[in-house]
Design a protein that fits this description.
Elements (H helix, E strand, L loop, with lengths): L3 H18 L4 E5 L5 E6 L6 H16 L3 H6 L24 E6 L2 E9 L3 H23 L1
Antiparallel strand pairs: 1-2, 1-4, 3-4
Length: 140
């Protein structure tokens, strides 16, 4: 399980990266069941990206794959073509959603939206890296 305190730390690291690149973002963290733990909308971030960030976190957890990698499997005619229409439209197939691991098992996910795919991915990676680093430190 990911605690609220851990989710806030993930978001803080992601928010710092968003500040660094100068792009306000929506950042969401989901638990092992894909349910929202917490979300922030940075000042100036798009309202329409709230839902997308939350859905990216859900998608990364629901399929235990980054949304960027899932998108590569879902082109027209591809193996997972149309997956984005599943789960009542909750599946997002563009960059910015990353599963979070503890001891090799997915325990949650981060979802980020508000910039380009490259920006969303970079911010999500910063949050995921924070979680991984804290998990490593806790296991020592």
């Amino acid at each position: 399980m990911i605690t609220l305190e851990q989710a806030r730390s993930i978001i803080a690291a992601a928010e710092a990266k968003a500040d660094e690149i100068g792009q306000p973002m929506n950042i969401a963290v989901a638990d092992w069941g894909g349910h929202l733990i917490t979300h922030i909308r940075m000042d100036g971030a798009w309202l329409g990206s709230i839902d997308i960030a939350i859905k990216k976190a859900f998608t990364a957890r629901a399929f235990d794959i980054s949304t960027r990698d899932l998108a590569k499997l879902a082109p027209d005619g591809g193996e997972f073509f149309g997956i984005n229409t599943s789960n009542q439209g909750r599946v997002m197939i563009f960059a910015g959603g990353i599963p979070l691991y503890r001891e090799g098992r997915v325990v949650g996910a981060i979802g980020v939206s508000g910039g380009s795919g490259v920006q969303d991915q970079a911010v999500a990676e910063a949050g995921a890296a924070d979680f991984a680093a804290r998990e490593l430190a806790a296991s020592d």
